[in-house]
């Protein structure tokens, strides 16, 4: 199940709640009743390198030279 982050509107504290994808967002903290607002957070995906998509999936031009800097001597 996804974990959603909420911010308490009175205290400013952040809370994480595990909810189903189709569940309605929480309006209040289940234990304290504090009003909550869902916080949008970026996904935990990091792409590293020099363009994996361009090098792996781009169409290759047959007339271009090799990019590896290899010497043919």
Automatic annotation (TrEMBL):
Instruction: Write the protein's name.
Output: FmdB family transcriptional regulator
Q: Write down the species.
A: Thermus scotoductus
């Amino acid at each position: 199940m996804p974990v959603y982050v909420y911010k308490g509107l009175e205290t400013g504290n952040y809370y994480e709640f595990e909810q189903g994808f189709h569940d309605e967002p929480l309006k209040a903290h289940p234990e304290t009743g504090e009003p909550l607002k869902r916080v949008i957070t970026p996904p935990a995906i990091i792409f590293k390198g020099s363009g994996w998509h361009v090098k792996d999936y781009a169409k290759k031009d047959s007339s271009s030279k090799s990019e590896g800097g290899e010497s043919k001597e």
